[in-house]
């Protein structure tokens, strides 16, 4: 059991690449912290520095009460689970799970007991005599977890441990790992590039981009109050629709937000208590609308007329419980820095916009329809820095 504290950690690789810039993170005892970000943002580098597999170029790393910058990996009392489980194919499941204990010269009886206990937690008891080649992907993943558990470390470090599994198994295993972490109450740092995994598993989520920490907060706060345009676009699926736009003059009723040829009325309440936003009236701004904050206006007859826009449906994805409806709108998409955020669809004219409609909506491909926008839930960002307002 331990806290893990990163204080202004830098990583500069020998070839001069700086993969991590001044990373500050405090991971509480028993906490499940997820490190998330696009490929190449430095997640594995950060994790490997905590593990001791990668030298730290600057800053201080503390595990428990000890500064461990110069402590060897085996003396850091942590266990790591990798993406490829790297099980020994010629050993049985039991031998794989117990291997580190054998190296540590733990007594035979204690080893047997710890293997039995791990196998029980992971429901692997009946597979202990099998070889890894005779297991399913999910079972192999559990053996890899077992190897970490038997060591009774003060922290678990996991680097994309589920990415080799198919989609269904991944969903099942992410629930199992989250439950296991709660039961064992061991501080855990979990790396993934999958924002759904990050949101569903972590007590807190740290978002990295280009080696810089963007924001660290609970999943709900990240979603509701992204600190900047990158986090806004990265967290949430489908991504937030974010456009370059203009705010009109503020009066007692509110102000008009102009996106391309489209005007949306923002009620006065949006500006109350947000002096930063008031100060932007009459100027450029980036405006973000989450897909779930739009609805087929025919299902919302009472929705104000000045909080709607009209557009043609260019793509429909029916998911049963909801429908993803794609439009083109003639506002310019704002740059978010997220390589996956803006996926171009339709005719290529204007920017894409995706809304999450109730399945009762009867929209069809090619229809020109009215879309109701929940204007009070629009997110705003500085148009040049991308900082949330
Ligand atoms: N040994 C190395 N020498 C030089 N540069 C490296 C080395 N290892 C990684 N990098 C660079 O450091 C950056 C961060 O790499 P890292 O592996 O930490 O990314 P990641 O976030 O784990 O990405 P992914 O999601 O693809 O696993 C990348 O630009 C990568 O090219
Ligand atoms: Mg990685």
List keywords for this structure.
single chain; 389 residues; alpha+beta; Rossmann fold; 2 domains; five-stranded antiparallel beta sheet; 9 helices; 20 strands; binds adenosine-5'-triphosphate; binds magnesium ion
Topology:
Blueprint: E1 4-12, E2 18-27, E3 32-36, H1 43-51, E4 58-63, E5 66-67, E6 78-81, H2 93-103, H3 108-121, H4 137-149, E7 155-159, H5 167-184, E8 187-192, H6 195-201, E9 204-209, E10 212-217, H7 219-224, H8 229-234, E11 241-247, E12 254-259, E13 262-267, H9 275-279, E14 284-289, E15 294-296, E16 308-318, E17 323-329, E18 351-357, E19 368-373, E20 379-381
Parallel strand pairs: 3-8, 3-9, 6-7, 7-8
Antiparallel strand pairs: 1-2, 1-4, 4-5, 9-10, 11-12, 11-14, 12-13, 14-20, 15-19, 16-17, 16-19, 17-18
This protein binds adenosine-5'-triphosphate and magnesium ion (MG).
Magnesium ion binds next to helix 1.
Q: Distance between termini?
A: 39 Å
* Secondary structure category: alpha+beta
Which stretches of 5+ consecutive residues score pLDDT under 50? 342-348
β content, as a range? 25-35%
- Helices, by number, come to 9
Large-scale geometry: elongated
The count of domains is 2
């Amino acid at each position: 059991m331990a806290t893990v504290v990163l204080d202004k950690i830098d990583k500069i690789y020998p070839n001069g690449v700086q993969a991590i810039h001044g990373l500050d993170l405090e991971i509480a005892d028993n906490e499940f912290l997820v490190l998330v970000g696009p490929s190449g943002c430095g997640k594995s580098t950060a994790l490997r520095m905590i593990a001791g597999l990668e030298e730290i170029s600057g800053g201080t790393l503390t595990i428990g009460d000890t500064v461990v910058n110069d402590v060897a990996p085996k003396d850091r009392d942590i266990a790591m689970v990798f993406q490829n489980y790297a099980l020994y194919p010629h050993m049985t499941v039991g031998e794989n799970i117990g291997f580190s204990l054998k190296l540590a010269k733990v007594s035979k009886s204690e080893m047997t007991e710890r293997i039995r206990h791990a196998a029980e937690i992971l429901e692997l008891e009946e597979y202990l005599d099998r070889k890894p080649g005779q297991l399913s992907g999910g079972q192999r993943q559990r053996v890899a977890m077992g190897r970490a558990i038997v060591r009774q470390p003060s922290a678990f470090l996991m680097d994309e441990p589920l990415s080799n599994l198919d989609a269904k198994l991944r969903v099942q295993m992410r629930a199992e790992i989250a439950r296991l972490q709660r039961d064992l109450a061991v501080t855990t740092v979990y790396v993934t590039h999958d924002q759904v995994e990050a949101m569903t598993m972590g007590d807190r989520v740290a978002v990295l981009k280009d080696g810089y920490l963007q924001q660290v907060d609970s999943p709900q706060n990240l979603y509701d109050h992204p600190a900047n345009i990158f986090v806004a676009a990265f967290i949430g699926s489908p991504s937030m629709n974010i456009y370059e736009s203009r705010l009109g003059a503020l009066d007692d009723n509110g102000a008009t937000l102009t996106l391309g040829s489209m005007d949306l009325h923002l009620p006065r309440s949006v500006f109350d208590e947000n002096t930063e936003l008031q100060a932007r009236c009459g100027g450029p701004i980036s405006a973000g609308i989450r897909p779930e904050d739009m609805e087929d206006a025919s299902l919302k007859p009472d929705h104000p007329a000045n909080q709607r826009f009209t557009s043609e449906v260019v793509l429909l994805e029916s998911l049963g419980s909801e429908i993803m409806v794609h439009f083109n709108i003639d506002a310019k998409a704002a740059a978010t820095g997220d390589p996956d955020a803006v996926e171009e669809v339709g005719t290529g004219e204007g920017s894409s916009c995706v809304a999450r409609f109730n399945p009762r909506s009867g929209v069809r491909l090619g229809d020109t329809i009215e879309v109701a926008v929940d204007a009070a839930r629009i997110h705003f960002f500085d148009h040049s820095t991308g900082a949330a307002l």
